[in-house]
Amino acid sequence: MLVLGIWDGHDSGIVLLKDSEVLFSINEERLSRRKLEISFPARSIEYSLRYLGLKKEDVGVIAFSTTEFAKTLWRVFPFLKESYYLIRRKKKDYSSLNSIKKKLKYKITELQLDPLSRFISKTILKKELKKLGFRDFKLLAYDHHLCHAVSAAFTSGFDKSLVITIDGIGDSLSGTINKFENGKLERIKTISGSDSFGIFFEHVTNLMNMRELEDEGKVMALANYALQIEDEKNPLLDFFKVEGLNVKAKYGSLRTYKELKKILWKYPSEQFAYMAQRTLEVKITELVKNAIKETAIRNICLTGGTCSNIKVNMLLKNLPQVDDIYVFPHMGDGGLAMGSAMLANFELNGIYKYDFNNVFLGPRYSNDYIKTVLKKGELNNVKYEYINDIEKEIAKILSEGNIVLWFQGRMEYGPRALGNRSILAPPHSEEIKTELNLIQKKRVWYQPFCPTMLLDDAKVLLEDLKGTPNEFMTMGYMVEREKQKLVKGVINIDGSCRPQIITDYGSRYARLLLEYKKLSGIGVILNTSFNLHGEPLVCSPEDALNTFSRTPAKYLVLENYLLRKK
Prior knowledge:
The protein is an alpha/beta fold.
């Protein structure tokens, strides 16, 4: 039985499951080329079936999540969703009306009108699916945070774990605490949408003239440049109270925004960012410690958009109470399609274990296809050649201090480039880091880049390597002080980094690192996403060529083809 999971909200997308195998997954942004696309994932559905050689009638079950009033309203009136998308991404000029719309959105998301909104959502989605040609299928709807929790629990590899979801809001909740053991997921506590850590941080992001649901990582990065304030003097720590498993916000969502605005007036932006980041660190750590104490479970699964905060995750990893920690690689709402499909598969087939050793779940393009694209394209001032042992050539180019755009294999699932759609550079150069930020990626100067490192090198470089090595760039680690000069281009100002740790040395990407290590003495390279700021990760060779033409980068690798600008 084929199960199709769909998500039609922020960062919409699909997943196709068969038995215990994830066949394919893609988010709509990769095809529409609009960052964090919100439209119904029709392109993704059509593309995935065509890529796998399947027909609509091969799909027997379709699952989706989130039937709250606000989401249902957007399904009934898609123009409202589009309007808010343009406002949130600052694609519309500022107006007081837009400000009112944003405030209204926060109030509406707290409303819950089940079962009416659930019935309406199912009716609308069934209509959309029939329009695409689906006929005899079962349509199943699931709770937002249950989908988050299942995606983490079923892919973690843990037989028993504490599963914690934290995000802005979904189906009136902003978080849950669950126990998972041998396929059984038991919810033991919920966090109300009105007590949301995620919405608090969204407001902080918004007040700093950044885009909520998109630029929270910038707030976390900027916080490192602040003059630190003692916890006793941090006014934002009073915004939440954690008692046992209960989380209570001091103010409602709109009042929180007003009070934050008053505090921002008194502090520099970087200190405001630091105080907000510190609030998440202190309060979420407190909550997790309480949950471990109550359940006596020491393996932790994290998911939900707020769990993309790698500094919070690092603190949790380093708690003495924690044995191991797993963060679902697509922790934001873009991962909900996976959770809904897995729930349906469990409900119908009893399957709850998935091999998630890698997340290369998107399309692959052959050398023959790439050759056809290159012959068709207008490659002005660019020459290309086919190279059998291309890893050796690229390692040499990198060791000479160059930046390389790297396109290989199946596209990554989730927000992180993990070596198949990546921009690569040497790890030791602050000059290259600045060039990448300001000239290549066209983004703010203080955002750090991440390293990919071989496990052998991680053991030498990282002072807090604990538990399962993190392969998905979802966790912060500290670099040994005396080793920091070796990797200056991939660490933050405080010596932290967010590494991708390679444990399987058989892939082409791993072989590249091994070749680079022969030349440089270190199995580490700078790895950032193959895109320009504000654009999605490239998906196809055509996308890669388009981005290559708009950057000063001199080298592009498309499978075995090396392109050089003259």
